[in-house]
Design a protein that fits this description.
The chain is 51% helix and 14% strand. The chain is an alpha+beta fold and 389 residues long. It folds into three domains: 120 residues, Acyl-CoA dehydrogenase/oxidase, N-terminal domain (Butyryl-Coa Dehydrogenase, subunit A, domain 1, Orthogonal Bundle), CATH 1.10.540; 97 residues, Butyryl-CoA Dehydrogenase, subunit A, domain 2; 146 residues, Butyryl-CoA Dehydrogenase, subunit A, domain 3 (Up-down Bundle). Strands 1, 2, 3, 4, 5, 6 and 7 form a seven-stranded mixed sheet that branches. The chain has a two-stranded antiparallel sheet with strand order 8-9. A hairpin with a 2-residue loop joins strand 4 and strand 5. It binds 3-thiaglutaryl-CoA and flavin-adenine dinucleotide (FAD). The site of flavin-adenine dinucleotide has 20 residues, from strand 1, strand 3, helix 9 and helix 10. Flavin-adenine dinucleotide binds next to strand 1, strand 3, helix 9 and helix 10.
Length: 389
Amino acid sequence: MEKFTGVDYFDTCSLLSEEELLVRDSVREFVSAEVIPIIEQYNRRSEFPRQLISKMGELGVFGATLPQEYGCAGLNNVSYGLMMQELERGDSSIRSFASVQSALVMYPIFTFGSQQQKEKWLPELASGNKIGCFGLTEPDFGSNPAGMLSRAEVVQGGYKLSGAKMWITNGTIADVAVVWAKLDGQINGFLVEKGMPGFSAPEMKGKHSLKASVTSELVFEDVFIPEENRLPAASGLKSPLMCLNQARYGIAWGVVGAMMACYEAALNYSKSRIQFGKPIAAYQMTQEKLVYILTEITKAQLMNLSLGRMKDKGTLKHTQVSMAKRNNCEKALEIARISREILGANGILDEYPVMRHAANLESVKTYEGTHEMHTLIIGEDITGFSAFE
Ligand code: TGC
Ligand code: FAD
């Protein structure tokens, strides 16, 4: 296979620092050498390739923007975004693993945790020695997490937690779950550890999408949570929503990797597939598709870079993250479908990556806020009217 050299029609590379380019290239090489050769097999078996975790830890992927004193890389947000982009060129499941560990587990422990919680968990999560998950969604409360039924009540020395979460990435394999539940009607965050009596995390089976990712239920049957496992600085729905901003940011970048993989496959295929005596790339309708794909990739790259620079400056608004998540996921899915068309029947085979990306992107468009939720978030921002209810 030829070395992947990137898709960059507007020379966005020239806007990156040397460090950012180095980070991008090291993750790119890792994905080419260690993810792409094995991912179809793991996808077929619906299994996550756990042997990649420690390598991702060595590359500094987990909690990449957090300080070095906790074993993290201390990189800027553009570098983190580039990491997510490269990982998702391999598979959305790999990026999902990294997103959850970084944005949904390490970020809340860093932002809302006690000093003791940070010291206990962050270095272990950064290296990949420990795995985390994030439990917000419930069977009856997905887009509307404010309605959650999970409850904690005060008992001697801590809390008693009851309820259930659903669709939780990494749940079954996690050592620690960041769980959101109501305490006296107010949403609080708790660190629920593997093996705590009354806590179980059965894997959900039968997914046609994100097959190489572990997705689980979390069940809490009167689980005793010691006082030191409550996140002391978390308060109200705003706290988990702050975590979602971090993850949505990573997704906006990540799906560009999936777009690139589909474009590369479609472009190469169209140049070698002969029909009616000519490569299909020589037909105007194929060219229109390829140009559309490349234009959307270029727009998403520029949007991401602007997003990352604003995040690094501290001026980024969560509604801007919503716009990038919403646009890039929709375009990535569209690009995967158009690429599949260009490959004709071969497009449905797992010899090519496009159908796997298309199937994955169905989930990516839904999780971390559906397309409709992000439409309403931006709609409210620009009109002043909330249209959720
Ligand atoms: P609302 O009244 O609007 O907000 C409550 C408070 O939070 C503030 N806020 C935010 N703060 C930070 N970041 C954001 N994105 C925020 N959005 C709102 C808001 O200002 C308010 O603050 P305050 O000070 O007034 O208290 O709350 P609402 O109940 O009306 O809900 C708003 C809505 C619908 C936008 C929100 O619930 C939402 O985003 N729903 C979508 C749910 C979602 O995205 N779930 C994701 C679950 S995790 C996941 O999918 C992981 S996938 C993992 C993988 O990669 O594998
Ligand atoms: P619903 O909220 O029931 O929505 C169904 C449909 O109705 C959607 O199209 C939605 O846009 C639409 N809709 C809902 N309300 C409105 C409205 N007011 N106006 C217009 N349309 C509306 N969650 C976690 O907490 N942690 C995880 O790690 C995690 N990982 C996931 C991994 C996978 C593979 C998947 C698929 C999901 C994961 N999720 C996770 C859950 C994910 O965040 C939810 O699926 C998502 O928030 C949507 O919730 P829902 O599926 O219950 O859909």
